[in-house]
Amino acid sequence: MHRLTNRQIILGITGGIAAYKSAELTRILKTHGADVRIVMTPAACEFITPLTLQALSGHAVHQHILDPEAEAGMGHIELAKWADMILIAPASADFMARLNSGMGNDLLSTICLASEAPVVLAPAMNQAMWRDVQTQQNATDLQNKNIRLLGPGVGDQACGDNGPGRMLEPLEIASQAAALFEQGSLAGKQVFITAGPTREALDPVRYISNHSSGKMGYALAAAAADAGARVKLISGPVNLEAPARCERVQVESAQQMLDASLDGISDCDIFIAAAAVADYRPVSVAEHKMKKGKEELMELHLVKNPDIVATIASQPDNPFCIGFAAETQDVVAYAQDKLQRKNLDLIIANDVSRSDIGFNSDENAVTVISKTAATPLPQTSKRLLAKQLINLIADQYAGK
Ligand code: PMT
What is the pLDDT of residue 309? Predict the structure, then answer.
């Protein structure tokens, strides 16, 4: 169930007596770290009050497609984009029929149409309704459209009948939903990601560093974890929370980043170097704060830092290695040179001369360069870009 941590789940509730179990399902999803937003159909509100679900989820319940208040906050398109999963429990026969025919005649069906997130149904209905030829056809069609059905179970029903059509118990639904998050493109893979800047100390209070915020590397770590990978995030000093389901190792200097990268490297399948590592460090670190002297000029003696990603790429049994190239001119040409020199499988080139992308901004635009191709990915949020990059990396890794 740890896979539910920080997942953004829309819990859709349709009209059926099993709607009372959705309260418990909300509680279980929340207990395991999911952020849950409730969407109820009008019929669902006849079985359980929105107030109950609001109290349990901690958020206002969404009910109406034409709701000026919701559109000012999180309207149906925002909800559709926000969700990592749309879980509909209970899913009535009527809702399954409407979903299968592509209707968008209430908020929940419209969100399903507008979302790219996986849709998962826990059907619940009378046994005769479940056995009905059209319901069975709808169930088959929905599964053929990659919509996952959890259950239904078989047994005593609220109406007194016995047979198939019972909604699975909330705990079973939550654990099956959690398991679906483990089937990503990097399931079972160990990914190491370096992120943020390094700091190279001059004395106890001063250091050489750069403007990397860590946002790109942290977004990659979150996307890799979402894709099912075990992620070790080796991070320089940044002001970001560790992404959910990632092991974070915090370092300061390039040498510490290298040591943390080499630790356990034989288990690493994919190494992504998004950190902005200082190329040089002071030859020595003063024991005490350096004093201002009389001279106008001050000389600093620097020595080259080890190249972390090149060191990893030169290991026996090296992982699939991806570097970043931060360039201010001739971006693709310089990146291609680094791809070769550092013996990388891929390099992701970004133009850091622009203030709207690259260092410290929320967006980026890159070109993914392999030995044979260059694929531009246009400007978007680092979160979305990271998802695209992880998909691309997973494809290239699978085909290597
Ligand atoms: O952190 P953000 O604010 O979100 O910004 C993201 C970013 C711009 C820092 C990121 O997208 C990026 O480009 N990271 C790499 C920055 C960099 O140091 O590039 P480079 O061209 O100098 O290095 C090439 C590659 O070698 C990089 O993968 C780098 O991590 C690696 N390297 C460099 C030097 C070194 N001593 N060891 C290394 O591993």
Answer: 98
